[in-house]
Amino acid sequence: MTNYTPPTDHDEALREIHAYLFKPPMTGGKSRAEQLDNLLSILRSGKLSGRVLIWLGGGAMAAIGFYNTVGAALAKWAGQ
């Protein structure tokens, strides 16, 4: 006696989803899963680039503030 169970609608739906995501829509093309992964990697790199720009902008603002503060103090000290 075997433990065979006939395929159900759920099994068929999983096969269709797998075929949709992992089989390329045309011969030699990328699968939809690869295309989605590429789009998400672009999004992740965009977020990373945004964070780098925020950090650099904050550093530049801190440097300018320090320069203005020290410059004003030196000008005041030199003027006395």
Polypeptide structure, described:
It is a single chain. This protein is mainly alpha-helical and 80 residues long. Helices cover 78% and strands 0% of the residues. It is built from 2 helices and no strands. The protein has helices at residues 9-22, 32-79. The mean pLDDT is 86.
Q: Quickly count the helices.
A: 2
Shape: rod-shaped
Total beta strand runs = 0
Mean pLDDT: 86
What is the terminal separation in angstroms? 104 Å
- What is the element string, with H for helices and E for strands? HH
Portion in helices = over 70%
Structural class: mainly alpha
Largest sheet: none
Radius of gyration: 30 Å
Low-confidence stretches: none
> Approximately how much beta-strand content do the residues carry?
under 5%
Topology readout:
Blueprint: H1 9-22, H2 32-79
Give a quick precis of the structure.
The chain is mainly α. The protein contains 2 helices and no strands.
Index terms:
80 residues, mainly alpha, 2 helices, 78% helix, 0% strand
